[in-house]
Specification:
2 copies of one chain form a homodimer. Chain A is an alpha/beta fold and about 350 residues long. Among the domains of chain A are: about 50 residues, lambda repressor-like DNA-binding domains (434 Repressor (Amino-terminal Domain)), CATH 1.10.260; about 150 residues, 3-Layer(aba) Sandwich (Rossmann fold), CATH 3.40.50.2300. Chain A has 14 helices and 12 strands. In chain A, the strands form 2 sheets. In chain A, strands 2-1-3-4-5-11 form a 6-stranded parallel β-sheet, with helices on both faces. Chain A binds a DNA duplex (16 and 16 nucleotides) through helix 2 and helix 4.
DNA sequence: ATGAAAGCGCTAACAC
DNA sequence: GTGTTAGCGCTTTCAT
């Protein structure tokens, strides 16, 4: 009954006093322990409400040896391309999902010049788990992390020896196949592609998908140029493709940003899209929506991917079973950069 | 020299033992207290290095009554437009700046259906301060927050009674004026604008800037249509502008996303950009870079704005003097959507 | 089912 | 300059 003026936040002890129970009981109620009588529970809940009690995270964390914090690790180079809509959506998905849990989101920019700093921070007991998103890269330099800290990656690992980590990825191969099949379906007879860096899983997988369909169709799979996923790289790759002198009427580009760059080069060279060349991009982001013409694209469920990463990690942290690998489906969105199916021609051969 | 197998993280006490000093001394070293002899300091630093000691945040926070956590509050509706490159850059700036400080970034999605939840969290002693970014809106529903928690806003408040809060904003009026002057400079004689919502400071201020220059030039300032900053709204506004039947040769659009939408409508109606109509956007983001033609735009220093918000808050938290208001300059980036100056014509009048 | 007591790892007076 | 001593607010055995 200590009559105190408490300017700061009320403590568990004060709630206990107000409810006429011990601190232990209050703690039990706060932590949903089943071993509390309804009366005690009601009294405590009431006191909590009246006093506006909010548990002190630091104290709780110190005593329980859990932080209730999840780190979202963003490699610095990724941070520079933070404006990548796909990436932003993933972060959004993570944040939204976590806001429904007891976990707090701690965004960490991983300094590339001083990776130890990040490692120490993550391993220093500051967080309960980590989410690593490395944009388009397959950067699993934090792979070893997962042996010491529950970790879920966005995107599959590049090297097979990291296959034991948890990750969530889009079905890049299937997406690329769908894109390529669409080009075939609308009557394209000579296909080219602008692929991503081959040391990054999305770059690699999307090329695999394109190639697989092109070969199955008995077509030449040599019209390949690479780019680093930026609009500029897309433009340059398109120029190189054109310079080869081999005509093509269907182009699959590994992401929308490069597709936009390629689009402008094609037009600049007097080629009409989709009349002369049909283009399919990948991501289904704002770049594809606002380009002229709007891009037909393979949409990734970016927000859902982020939310799934968060869910998997939370499951892991709470001892629930979780899938090591989750593959998210993609879907084809047909817009103006691919022409209408040329039924007769296709039927003719 | 206590030979212990410590599976968990080493504690300050262990460092003290290893260095042959008291815990206080270790604490002083860790907290950069000047009252430590060089020898003691060296011994401690050495022990810390050897043991790989990392201070426990929870314990530190509990004892010091500081969390070293800064919340980045993102209203839910903003989260939906998370892919806005401007917004993403601001977040990036915040994160980058904070990674150089002792503060940790806690991203909070403010539920709009349950604002109390966020309030309680922020006021519950979980964070030392808050950064509120509400995208293009002037949403200072958290204004009252600043009386109880150090808070810095991104963007100026809409209502004058909130003028006592700390905020960082771009110079929207000056930016809009520069954009409009540029249109005049290249010889435009009839100006129109697609403005943003007038209940949002950026929407309001940019219209003010446009109007001020148009009037000074003795031109009609009636060609105004509003949009909500999305590409679609830009397209619709452009259509309404055209429907008025009043010809214009210069168009200022309050942001790049709307400008891209307007651009496509203009072309669709057979108007050539920049030959028939010159367009200037605002933001200088990826939308302006990858559109066709690329947009002349007023670039905001989004990353710097975010970094500045973080810096101001940290100053505030550390008792250093900080400016209540910081206005960031903008700059004109001339690209393909505005035509070359028509020197003779301009000189003629 | 509930309470008492012992810390979790650190900081912050206060002595020396 | 350095060590000693109390806690910070909570969880968690262990009794009862």
């Amino acid at each position: 009954m200590t009559q105190e003026l408490t300017p700061g936040a009320p403590t568990l002890e004060q709630v206990a006093a107000a409810a006429g129970v011990s601190r232990s009981t209050v703690s039990r109620v706060v932590n949903n322990s089943p071993h509390v009588t309804d009366e005690a529970m009601t009294a405590v809940l009431d006191a909590i409400e009246r006093l506006g009690y909010v548990p002190n995270r630091a104290a709780r964390s110190l005593a329980s040896r859990k932080t209730q914090v999840i780190a979202l690790v963003v490699p610095e180079t990724t941070a520079k391309v933070f404006a990548d809509p796909f990436f932003a959506s993933v972060v959004q998905g993570v944040a939204l999902h976590l806001s429904d849990t007891e976990y707090t989101l701690n965004m960490v920019i991983a300094s590339e010049t001083n990776p130890q700093k990040t490692r120490r921070y993550l391993l220093g007991g500051n967080v309960d788990g980590a989410l690593v998103v490395s944009h388009h890269s397959g950067d699993h330099s934090y792979a070893r992390l997962s042996h010491a800290l529950p970790t879920v990656f966005g995107g599959r690992p590049m090297s097979p020896d990291e296959q034991d980590s948890y990750y969530v990825d889009s079905d890049n191969v299937a997406g690329a196949e769908a894109a390529t099949r669409h080009l075939l379906d609308i009557g394209c007879r000579s296909l080219a592609t602008i692929a991503g860096p081959q040391d990054m899983p999305p770059g690699f997988d999307r090329l695999v998908g394109w190639r697989s369909v092109v070969r199955s169709a008995g077509l030449d799979d040599g019209l390949v140029e690479l780019g680093d996923f930026t609009p500029r790289a897309g433009a340059e790759a398109a120029r190189r493709l054109l310079d080869r002198g081999v005509p093509f009427d269907g182009l699959f580009v590994a992401n929308d940003q490069m597709a936009v760059g390629a689009l402008s080069v094609l037009r600049e060279q007097g080629l009409s899209v989709p009349h002369d060349v049909s283009i399919v991009g990948f991501d289904g982001d704002s770049f594809s929506e606002t380009s002229n013409p709007p891009l037909t694209s393979i949409a990734q469920q970016a927000t859902e991917l982020g939310a799934t990463m968060a869910r998997v990690l939370v499951d892991l942290l709470q001892g629930r079973p979780a899938d090591r690998v989750t593959i998210m489906p993609t879907r084809l969105i047909v817009r103006g950069s691919t022409r209408e199916p040329q039924g007769t021609e296709t039927a003719a051969d």
